Amino acid sequence: MGLYYSLSVLIIIATGFYYVNARFLKLPSTIGIMVLAIVCSVCLVIIGRFEPVPLHDMNELVGRIDFTNLLMSGMLYFLLFAGAIQINLDDLKEEKMPIIIFSSISIIISTFVVGFLLYYVLAFLFPLIGIHFPVSPIYCFLFGAIISPTDPIAVLVILKKTTISKSLETKITGEALFNDGMAIILFTVIYSIAQGQEQLKDISFLSITWLLVKEAFGALIIGMILGYIGFLAIKKVNDYKFTVLVTLSAVMGAYMISQALGISGPLTMVSAGIIIGNESRKYSAQKRTDIDFVKNFWELIDEVLNTILFLLMGFELLLLPDLSKYWASGLAAILIVLIARYMSVRIPAFALKGDYSPKTIFILVWGGVRGGVSIALALSIGDVLHRGFIVSITYFVVVFSIIVQGLSLKKLVNRL
């Protein structure tokens, strides 16, 4: 009953926040709910100094939910599928080279730039102003691996409210959907090194290459197979209720298979969703199947789950008691991540064909939003040295990214 009770209360709170946002704040629903959750968390912390009972009760409520497990082993699959079935495969093919480079090479560049800059700031600049955070370089690189991938959920939510060129939207969306594989490889390797020298025996060029092939390419192939199997089933039975069941089975089946084979579940889900979505649209144009019902169903799932996810991200503030200790590091991390994002986009752009004017680069940089995936990765690390530091500055960057970058992207695009 604990988890069910916690989710029930959170959904009721989300409904109330949705109402307040729709009536008064009038922000994009998910961002508005996250803002209200953060404000509510801050108020609870302040009240808790005088009357600890409300803060304790809310901490216990949020603490019952394993955010990492809930997102990475559940919600993420449904949210990725809901976004992937809307993607046009032809658009992805036109932008395949930028997507491949931005979702692989750019992640590597960003990880190491973030690591070097963060260590330099902490080791050399902060001591000049009397701030001392003696953090090992490997943990700076670990933070770089956590924060470098753009979040597909946050990106898809924000781009829905923004009018940009199809080419640019495809680049940003494609990168967010496919950068999971490289991000997990880097996170796994760096985290293994950070855990201790005894882990190094399992790390070699061959093992890393095999991990990349298995995680990324294996996931894409399995996802395509699942997608085509799902489409063939839809094609044989012209019934929208059955189509919904097939899509649900694809999501849950992809989760089970990816866990069993040790491949990237999110990439499996993305490729399955793209295949089912594109093939079903082609077929429905000929056979008049009620694909609109399925589309509306997944839009509803997407909206509900995003509402819960962004509410949880706001309330995660309650589980970070030391956040105030890291405000200077958090602000520095925000600037460092933006610099790294610029370098990870600008450097590969030299080798790519197409329009990469300063305005385009700036939109690609500002549109690289971080979200729940980074928080989940940060929370997934065990009780190691500097865990509180990494989780806290990750939260700073994610909140800034979603609220500041997310809310200003539309105005920025219109102005540029």
Write up what this structure looks like.
This protein is mainly alpha-helical and 416 residues long. It has one domain (66-415): Na+/H+ antiporter like fold, CATH 1.20.1530.20. The chain contains 19 helices and no strands. Helix 2 (29-48) packs across helix 3 (52-63) and helix 4 runs antiparallel to helix 15. It is globular. The N and C termini lie far apart (52 Å). The mean pLDDT is 88.
Features:
416 residues
Structure described in brief:
The chain has one domain (66-415): Na+/H+ antiporter like fold (Up-down Bundle), CATH 1.20.1530. It contains 19 helices and no strands.
CATH domain fold name? Na+/H+ antiporter like fold
Assigned CATH architecture = Up-down Bundle
> What's the tally of helices?
19
* Rough outline: globular
Number of beta-strand segments: 0
Rg is 21 Å
Compressed to H and E, one letter per element, the order equals: HHHHHHHHHHHHHHHHHHH
Low-confidence stretches: none
Number of domains: 1
Average pLDDT value? 88
Structural class: mainly alpha
Largest sheet: none
The share of residues in helices is: over 70%
Distance between the termini: 52 Å
Name of the CATH first level: Mainly Alpha
Strand content: under 5%
